[in-house]
């Protein structure tokens, strides 16, 4: 599945004050690595990206990590399937325990062959609320951010 982050407004902390810190694993060559470590909200969204791009069962030491969203690929685009995809995406993101998914809004675009998903979530420990992450799910290529 191809992954492209649409919301580039998420920035790493420059103040040195952070709650969460992680290693920047964005080594795909399409986006420049600007920092070896990422903080707070950026670290959490990178974790969400990992959960949504790794097929469940593929991590040797953690077989329950990841998702089963690939089962939606090559299926007809319908409102019902879009709702089911949104529900499964929200359930999958429960693996990221630092967030609370408020809602997943799904827009069906039959002409383009994609579902546009808008994930609204909060990060209670960071006092961050109503954060939005946009994800497209194309029936022939999977998720794009």
* Percentage beta strand: 25-35%
Main beta sheet: 4 strands, antiparallel
The count of DSSP E runs of length 2 or more, i.e. the number of strands, is 6
Determine the number of helices (DSSP H or I, runs of at least 4 residues): 2
Mean pLDDT: 78
CATH class: Alpha Beta
Distance between the termini: 11 Å
How many separate domains make up the residues?
A: 1
Uncertain runs are 1-14
What topology, given as strand order, has the largest sheet? Answer: 3-4-5-6
CATH topology: Nuclear Transport Factor 2, Chain: A
> What is the rounded Rg?
15 Å
Q: What series of H and E elements makes up the topology?
A: EEHHEEEE
Principal-axes geometry comes out as globular
The CATH architecture: Roll
Structural class: alpha+beta
Percent of residues in helices:
10-25%
Oligomer: single chain
Written overview of the protein:
The structure is a single chain. The chain is of the alpha+beta class and 145 residues long. It has one domain: Nuclear Transport Factor 2, Chain: A (Roll), CATH 3.10.450. Helices cover 19% and strands 28% of the residues. The chain is globular and about 45 Å long. The N and C termini lie close together (11 Å).
